[in-house]
Design goal:
The complex is a heterodimer of chains A (113) and B (112). Chain A has 113 residues and is an all-beta fold. Chain A contains no helices and 11 strands. The model of chain A has no long low-confidence stretch (mean pLDDT 94). Chain B is an all-beta fold. Chain B is 0% helix and 55% strand. Chain B is built from no helices and 11 strands. In chain B, the strands form 2 sheets. In chain B, strands 2, 4, 5, 9, 10 and 11 form a 6-stranded mixed beta sheet that branches. Chain B has a 5-stranded antiparallel beta sheet with strand order 1-3-8-7-6, with no helix packed on it. The mean pLDDT of chain B is 91. Classes of the chains: A mainly beta (113), B mainly beta (112). Chains A and B meet through strand 5 and strand 10 of A and strand 4, strand 5 and strand 9 of B.
């Protein structure tokens, strides 16, 4: 079975721009969660989608949004990028929602200049 | 509230055992997980333990759970240089509809 894939792997954007990241979960997994990882803050939960519905949301501003498609693929969007948004964005998929065991993708490294 | 604490760094010699510790606050957690992150990569699920278990062994990995003290540990026997990574513990709250809660990770350095 193929693992979780994320595209692109690396991205450089300028302040004020917006960005869209994509995640394809493991086949059969219906839950996709997104995390932001930075050296200072560690792993912070952004949101979780299950069957195209947002089930949980972390404490991030409205500039961070996401969606899930009927094939369980998910995208997250960050608008009006700030320097502090530079991070590794990780996506994880699981069979069920909530705290089920999660399988992570390799991440997208976003650099905002 | 939910919080998971880990020490930030651990250094061991190749061939020795490593013990990575974790404390959590949600006594109703059902599953507790250990993940490994190598440089430039995502998190890899290593092992997990159900809250009604005290111990789980999987090859070189041993997980110990002390539910009374809300303490979880991961022991890696015969530590190798390839074990150098960041190790995260995570708890699954009983409520079930909330996400996993991760610690900040322990960076394990293995000295040859």
């Amino acid at each position: 079975k193929a693992g979780v894939t994320q595209t692109p792997r690396y991205l450089i954007k300028t302040r004020g721009q917006q960005v869209t990241l994509s995640c394809s979960p493991i086949s059969g997994h219906r839950s996709v969660s997104w995390y932001q990882q930075t050296p200072g803050q560690g792993l912070q939960f952004l949101f979780e989608y299950f069957s195209e519905t947002q089930r949980n949301k972390g404490n991030f501003p409205g500039r961070f949004s996401g969606r899930q498609f009927s094939n369980s693929r998910s995208e997250m969007n960050v608008s009006t990028l700030e320097l502090g948004d530079s991070a590794l964005y990780l996506c994880a998929s699981s069979l069920r929602t909530g705290g089920d065991e999660q399988y992570f993708g390799p991440g997208t490294r976003l650099t905002v200049t | 509230g939910e919080d998971v604490e880990q020490s930030l760094f651990l250094s061991v010699r190749e061939g020795d055992s490593s013990v990575i510790n974790c404390t959590y606050t949600d006594s109703s957690s059902t599953y507790l997980y250990w993940y490994k992150q190598e440089p430039g990569a995502g998190l890899q699920l290593l092992t997990y333990i159900f809250s009604n278990m005290d111990m789980k062994q999987d090859q070189r990995l041993t997980v110990l759970l002390n539910k009374k003290d809300k303490h979880l540990s991961l022991r890696i026997a015969d530590t190798q240089t390839g074990d150098s990574a960041i190790y995260f513990c995570a708890e699954c709250p009983l409520s079930g509809n909330t996400p996993l809660v991760f610690g900040k990770g322990t960076r394990l350095s293995v000295i040859a």
